[in-house]
């Protein structure tokens, strides 16, 4: 697979504050599915903005892609509340829903047809995300960023959206980058992880390689309560959501 984009080294700085620092080469290859993960304020959105030329940076980004070759799903997209959804789609994509078979197939694929006549303001959070996803997918750009596409959605809606995206991009060569807080929703979609912490890229590699490096062969999780905290004293732990305890297993028999 050929490289689509290569970062030789890059820094995004605002005054004395370093928002993002990438010290080693990173290459995105055709067909890569990259999960960009980190805590709030880690620098994930700064990374996306710098890749799109929306944030000033120092360093080198080698790519033959033009700005028109990149599509971005932003965290928030607001339109006139009373405007019909169908009108929004046609205005942004410069086409007619009724005359464009590919667009209709995409709308049907995301089970969005019943919402075309609704006003934007009447859509639920999940429906608004689907609208934006339709706009991004239809453009079929070589490099695509989804910035927290499932934020504020319940688990079931999140999982359904990620399953649909995974199915849509199956066997395609687009480079798809998904910014998320949730490892579970990236697990089936992505083959690589870019981990950012406090503005610094700490790891970029295949998911299996990183899992083996940081977690061993498997991970055991349990609810975080006083009883479990007591019985697991002395066990090696890894970072986990606040309601869980997580323990790496270095061997298959552990």
Structure description:
The protein is an alpha/beta fold. The chain has two domains: 3-214, P-loop containing nucleotide triphosphate hydrolases (Rossmann fold); 218-249, no CATH class. Helices cover 29% and strands 29% of the residues. It is built from eight helices and twelve strands. The longest helix is centred in the middle third of the chain and has 15 residues, at 125-139. The mean pLDDT is 89.
Q: Would you spell out the secondary-structure blueprint of this structure?
A:
Blueprint: E1 3-14, E2 17-22, E3 26-29, E4 33-37, H1 44-51, E5 58-63, E6 70-73, H2 85-93, H3 101-109, H4 125-139, E7 143-147, H5 155-168, E8 175-180, H6 183-186, E9 192-197, E10 200-206, H7 207-215, E11 218-223, H8 226-231, E12 244-249
Parallel strand pairs: 4-8, 4-9, 6-7, 7-8
Antiparallel strand pairs: 1-2, 1-3, 1-5, 9-10, 11-12
Which structural class best describes the helix and strand composition?
alpha/beta
**CATH class of the largest domain, anyone?**
Alpha Beta
Strand numbers in spatial order across the main sheet: 6-7-8-4-9-10
- Nearest-angstrom radius of gyration? 20 Å
Mean pLDDT: 89
Beta percentage is 25-35%
The number of distinct helices, counting runs of at least 4 residues, comes to 8
Superfamily (CATH H level) name of the largest domain: P-loop containing nucleotide triphosphate hydrolases
The CATH topology label of the largest domain is Rossmann fold
Inertia-based shape: globular
The largest pleated sheet is described as:
6 strands, mixed
CATH architecture of the largest domain: 3-Layer(aba) Sandwich
Number of strands: 12
Order of helices and strands: EEEEHEEHHHEHEHEEHEHE
For the termini, the CA-CA separation is 38 Å
The proportion of residues forming helix, as a percent range, comes to 25-40%
Number of domains: 2
Poorly predicted tracts of residues: none
């Amino acid at each position: 697979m050929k490289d689509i984009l290569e970062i030789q080294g890059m820094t995004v700085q605002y005054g004395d504050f370093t928002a993002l620092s990438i010290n080693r080469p990173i290459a995105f290859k055709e067909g890569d599915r990259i999960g960009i993960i980190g805590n709030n304020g880690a620098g994930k959105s700064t990374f996306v903005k710098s890749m799109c030329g929306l944030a000033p940076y120092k360093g080198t980004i080698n790519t033959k892609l033009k700005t028109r070759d990149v599509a971005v799903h932003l965290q928030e997209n607001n339109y006139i509340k009373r405007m019909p959804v169908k009108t929004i789609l046609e205005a942004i994509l410069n086409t007619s829903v009724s005359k464009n078979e590919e667009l209709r197939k995409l709308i049907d694929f995301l089970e969005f047809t019943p919402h075309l006549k609704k006003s934007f303001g009447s859509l639920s959070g999940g429906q608004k995300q689907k609208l934006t996803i339709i706009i991004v997918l239809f453009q079929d750009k070589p490099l695509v960023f989804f910035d927290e596409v499932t934020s504020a959605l319940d688990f079931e809606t999140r999982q359904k959206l990620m399953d649909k995206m995974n199915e849509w991009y199956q066997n395609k060569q687009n480079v798809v980058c998904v910014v998320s807080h949730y490892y579970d929703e990236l697990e089936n979609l992505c083959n690589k992880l870019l981990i950012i912490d406090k503005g610094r890229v700490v790891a970029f590699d295949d998911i299996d390689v990183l899992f083996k490096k940081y977690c061993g062969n498997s991970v055991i999780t349990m609810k975080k309560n006083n009883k479990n905290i007591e019985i697991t004293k002395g066990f090696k732990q890894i970072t986990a959501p606040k309601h869980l305890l997580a323990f790496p297993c270095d061997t298959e028999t552990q």
